Amino acid sequence: MTPIFILPFLFLTQSAPQMRLDYRSAPIDDVIYRFTKETGVIIIKEPSLKTKLTIMSDKPLSHKDAFSALFSALRASNIDWHMESGFLILTQKQTKVLDTSINPELLVKGYKLNYLNSQSLSIALNSLYQNVNFRASYEHYSNVLIVNANEEKHIQISEILKKIDLDIKPKYTSTVFKLNYASTSDVSKILSNVLSKLDKNYDPSSLIEDYSTNSLIVYSPSDRVDELKTLVKVLDVKVESRDSVFIQNIKNANAEDLATILRQLAGGTP
């Protein structure tokens, strides 16, 4: 009998959330899904387990009592359980002693994936290890890869996951550029052109102009922010205006009328 004290998450108060159990010859997958959803405890079963469970209560049970009922049903179905890396692992009890010199002891372990898809990875691993002593499956709800293999294979899988279960997508961040001299429309055109070359996934909508504060809000890869700051600093400079006088001979228009029109266009008085 597996001692209850190895399951620290069961020590809940009587005021803890409760659940009513009403399972009559229910597929073990349905029971596992309910317990995981209700309690937050990730339960991983050996892929070959297809047992049907009967667990019934006439009143709501605390999570502690619900797990006690589950363990009783598992024991009656000849199923072992143990805790490993925070997961509750369910395996079929061995009915005969294995010859470990020929067939090393198989262990069921769960690997919580952060970025990879557990279903796709299980298919790839089964293709890679086409061996009767290896079987990979998955738990979609919690994105856990389930591996049934000997210890040597588990060590290999653990090392593989360290190398491939990584966040390969570039990290993005939002940066606000307050312009002091240049206009947002002028700078945004230049930044948009630069970003389209730096980031193949660039979306023009990730650059927002705030005319009320003469600012630009740019959503860009985090590792490009310093480059953008340098570029904005170069563009946002005060340009000293100088008055210049140009003399132009008019051939076909009245000089006085044309001067009046030009002053109006420039915002001056007629």
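(ticket continues) Second input and output from the same batch:
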Amino acid sequence: MKNTWNDFVKPIVVLGVICLVTSLLLAVTNNVTAPIIAENAVKTANATRQALLPSADTFTEVAPETPTEGVTAIYKADNDSGYVITAQAKGYGGEVPVMVAFNAEGTIEAVQFLDNDETPGLGQKVKSEAFQSQFSGMPAEEFGLSDIDAITGATISSGAAASAINAAIAAYNQEAGVAGEDLSTLSPEELRAALNTLAPLDRALILERVLDGLDYAALACIHGRPAAYLRTRYHRAKKQLAQRLKEGEHYEV
């Protein structure tokens, strides 16, 4: 004859007690380790920011008035040497996060792609030095896949990487106040009047980029200069032009 307690009830009670004790132990362990894990994550993030922008002393997190889609954190160097912005965009396997450091001159100092779930051997190459290093020295200006050396066989991951950096660029321009006036809102007459204050090459670059919509590969063919050089030259010319437009300096040279 079966013993109901020993055969049915007791095993259920024992199992329930084991589960309860295990849950309590896990909760206690989590309470102990969670702050340590969080602290280590903060230390790692701070160390990465410092490595990307060595000229910075310490950082303060900035709360933007208007959040930029994809941007998860903005840190400003306390000695005004630049910003480090974390952003992400949807890739093949999930979000592709990146930290982008901008120096005081408004150019990208360095980028560091963080852990992601992209395909090993393909999308994961966004974390390679060869891919990351190409962004150093680029101006804080939106770019497309045609402007960079994308990863062969990983178009989605490359596009996500570009989108994440572009989000960081947009946030930087907003926070640093270097976006300047939207040249596309000016009439051709207003734009040409202001362009007369610039050097001939700078004037040509802005006309070809803003009015004609040419990419840097086309500009390189036209002017016989490297695309990277023309990108930087255009960015500086646009900042100079925006400043003169702001001051109302539309004069002939």
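Agent notes: Residues 249-253 have pLDDT under 50 and may be disordered. Strands lie at 59-61, 71-77, 82-90, 95-103, 108-113. Closing as not reproducible unless the customer responds.
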